[in-house]
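Justification of computing resources. Each target in the renewal requires a structure prediction run like the one illustrated here; the chain below, 234 residues long, is used simply to show the kind of job we budget for.
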Amino acid sequence: MSAKVTPDPVLKEKALAVHQRLLAVFGRPKRAYLPPVDELVCTILSQNTNDNNRDRAFEALRARFPTWEAVRDAPTEAVAEAVRVAGLAGQKAPRIQEALRRITQEQGRITLDFLKDWPVEKARAWLQSLPGVGPKTAAIVLLFALDKPAFPVDTHVYRVTGRLGLRPPKMSVEKAHAWLEALFPPETYYDAHLNLIRLGRRYCRPRNPRCAECPVRDLCPEGQRRLQQAGGEP
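Resulting structure tokens:
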């Protein structure tokens, strides 16, 4: 972790209780891994858009350019056109190309497999040195492509953990990565991350959350407050 944090043991017990409850409700997410470079590009495309547009942009990019070397060497305008459906193509296209160039310069070819042998913090720092790669993108590549212990914090995870009281209310998204990595046991990161997203999409929505139906409403101070205000059962 980039910063040493020590959540209260009682809060760690609550996090584990939330995780176990979500496993009982949603089950254990199926594990699926993309190659690391694919995951990196896909995650850059996912910034400020939804999963459907991200996937369409990634598929269009791979259909137009058969290799990552072809993406790296193509005119930026052509890459931007291929990924336009993901939005912010004028930013994402050059970021992807710059990242691919950096990887080539340092490794002699386009691969991130070398990171598998690095300690997680060294790999995290290297990834975040790439253009357009912040804590969330780095954590996604670490967890989903390199099978390393990292806890990505997207908009759903940030919102849900805030409402559940699993993090300080005013903590930034950037600091929440280290906090949640200290809060949850490393062996739970993959399942907990994905199930918190499921919770956020199905119940703990940004507007009009379905607190009365939420499977962890008894563990959620925000949910209990909303239910009491609505005159429902806490």
